[in-house]
# Entry
Amino acid sequence: MAFTQATAPTGLRTNRELSADNSIPERHIVVATIRTAAPRLGLTASVISTLEAMLSCLAPERNHHTVFASNVTLSFRRNGISDRTIRRHAATLQEVGLLVRHDSPNRKRFTRHSGDGGKALRFGFDLSPVFDRLHEIAALAAEVMREKEQIGYLRTKIRAVANARLLDNPDDGTALTVLRTLRRKLTVQDCEQILAELEVRTVQAEANGDQRSVEPTTMADTDGHFVRHHRKSTIEHIDKEKRPQKNETTVPVADAPITIAELLTACPEAAILSLKRIETPHDVIAHARTLAPMMGISLNSYDAAHQRLGPVRAAATVWAIMQFHEKIKAVGAYFRAITTGSKSAEFSPEKLIRRDKPPLDELRCVPSASQRQFTRPKHETY
# Structure
């Protein structure tokens, strides 16, 4: 019987404490994203619950994503489902590309380290594809959310048209049939086809969407409130030009407040992961709190940056790091260094966002968890 051996560098043993800066997102964020994107992935709620049970068997701080738990343990965490159901769910996850099985000769799940500690054989359920495809899954989840909003809008429009026709003719058979059709689960194409049959393009209550002000909206440290540029009168402007200005200081362009449009343009990697449209500073802050644990930024580090930089500037820092996080060896340590650590004195989120690429010396300032040397105390012997 053929089997697959998985060989991978160990880095650190699992019984040693690993750094939280290895960009591992929290389990509830991963599961929530997958649940939202389930229609696109072809997963049922039961399969996702089994995947959540597998994820719960992984240590929060680790250097691999292999599950060694037995089917008995997984069954206990899934409220007693059968062994056959677990195998069927694992096969489904493997078919959609979220799980890779590394089977041992005796079908047990375990890890075996080499003598020099350089490599290890890990036999079990490898969930690395889940974390590798998380950005893709988040994009699918955003599509599902937009489709649900569109379906809700079209269903409301169809109901309004049908009710208007029933007011004119209570015995209108077409309107009654349409109302009965709305009891079923409909797609966008189904709703558009119904509207085409009703031969109605607009309804009386339909209008253009809410338009935002064309004035540039900047984000300042005012707890997420809008700060707008006000146009002053011409007379006041002329009077000020006649007066000699003393000790006049101008804000450099690099340190000027960041607009939401500028942030969305400079950080498309963070914007694409948002499940809703970013329109206000509150949306920017809320999305940054979602991205931070996915990138390996701890809650304490983010709260410290929030206290020092303010809510908006701390959120903008997370957005900027998300744009080039793949080039950073340890995202959490880098975030602490530039916000509250040794490099925080001269740090400016505005400059970080407005430059094309991050400084290489700052990216290399913090070693990764796998590259750190753990020294043993002299009095300990092994």
Q: What stands out?
A: The first helix runs from residue 27 to 36. The longest strand covers residues 119-126.
